[in-house]
Design brief:
The chain has helices at residues 15-29, 43-52, 59-70, 72-79, 96-107, 121-134, 147-157, 176-188, 206-212, 219-235, 296-305, and strands at residues 4-6, 33-34, 85-90, 112-118, 142-144, 162-166, 195-201, 244-251, 256-263, 267-271, 276-280, 285-292, 309-315, 321-327. By secondary structure, it is of the alpha/beta class. Helix 2 runs antiparallel to helix 10 and helix 4 (72-79) crosses helix 5. The model has no long low-confidence stretch (mean pLDDT 95). Bound molecules: N,N,N-trimethyl-histidine. Its EC number is 2.1.1.44. Residues 21-326 form the Histidine-specific methyltransferase SAM-dependent domain.
């Protein structure tokens, strides 16, 4: 196996850069202004997210680590129940939590191939080399690409039983209709007998949630503001990043954390690759991320509406986070 496959290196020039420029043009011309959190994860952004996961306030990583550590043998038994499988890790990042399962599967001598997928090439390169050191003998191949391109690639290149991992509450970034569409899309790439293990952050004390996205050290602020730095770097923007503040707010009825970048003053920003400038009124905001928190009945309804059957819900002792196994 080639240790790394990059689906984003297209022959026809800079498709990704053009997509990014078009996205920025559309989002900053929209009322109200918006940009997608999928563009957070360039090299510096992935490094900042890595730091977020180590913050005392960012509970999801620790909670999910507990769920997986405490239930690793039950989870591995479910995943490895039927012979050889492809283990596809969507949005793998540093795969800190997946590594617990990989070691458990290896100890059980399960026959599988590990395919981590992420839009960050840096993250996938680091993961490939760390896997070689930490889990020698593991059959793996990292894929650099977005969810859609990777699922297409998988369809064309890998046949046989599939187990999809979608950990870390990445599903939370989707609006409710989008998450249904995405789960249906995954379902359409699976056959009966295939499984999905999804990690989802649960509803809890609003203050706990708000603190996780507004940490004292300001790492989350830097992570959000990096989106403007990235536009400056890659699209030739002239954002005065100090002219914006990070502003997160939790809505306890919708169960959603929304993050914004708010312009402290009236300003115009020129972005070369878009060929135009964008006007900001004083205190005008760009919506940059939604992180939905779920209830257990909501999870069950979402799963059933997308054509999966619920197998088992694993939770930590405090009911902070759920990792749920479904089958196709
Ligand atoms: C990687 C999408 C799960 O929404 O909690 C962390 C990203 N944003 N802090 C999340 C994030 C701000 C994270 N996910």
């Amino acid at each position: 196996l080639d240790p790394l496959i990059n689906l984003t290196r297209k022959e026809n020039g800079n498709k990704d850069l053009t997509d990014f420029a078009n996205h920025v043009t559309a989002g900053l011309s929209h009322t109200p202004k918006k940009l997608s959190s999928r563009y957070f994860y360039d090299g510096p952004g992935s490094a900042l997210f890595q730091q977020i996961m180590e913050l005392p306030e960012y509970y999801p990583t620790r909670c999910e680590y507990e769920v997986i550590t405490e239930n690793k043998s039950a989870i591995a038994a479910h995943l490895a129940s039927e012979g050889f499988f492809h283990l596809i890790d969507l949005g793998a990042g540093d795969a800190l939590k997946t590594k617990i399962l990989l070691k458990e599967l290896q100890e059980r001598r399960a026959a599988f191939e590990y395919l981590p997928v992420d839009i960050s090439e840096d993250a996938m390169q680091q993961l490939s080399s760390s896997l070689e050191k930490e889990i020698p003998g593991l059959n793996h191949q990292a894929v650099v690409g977005d969810y859609n391109d990777s699922l297409e690639w998988l369809q064309q290149n890998k046949s046989g039983r599939k187990v999809i991992l979608f950990l870390g509450s990445n599903i939370g970034n989707f609006e409710h209709e989008e998450s249904l569409g995405f789960l249906r899309k995954i379902r359409s790439h699976l056959e009966p007998g295939d499984s999905l293990l999804m990690g989802i952050d649960l509803r809890k004390d609003p203050d706990t949630i708000l603190r996780a996205y507004n940490d004292f050290a300001g790492v989350t602020a830097a992570f959000n503001l990096n989106l403007l730095h990235r536009i400056n770097r890659e699209l030739g923007g002239n954002f005065d990043v100090n002219g914006f503040i990070h502003y997160p707010i939790y809505n306890p009825q919708e169960g959603v954390m929304r993050s914004y970048l708010v312009s402290k003053q009236e300003q115009d920003v020129y972005i070369q690759a878009t060929g135009r400038s964008f006007h900001f009124n004083a205190w005008e905001a760009i919506h940059t991320e939604s992180s939905y928190k779920y209830t257990l009945p909501q999870i069950q309804a979402m799963v059933e509406a997308s054509g999966f059957t619920l197998e088992t819900i694993f939770q930590d002792k405090e009911g902070c986070f759920a990792d749920v196994i479904f089958h196709a």
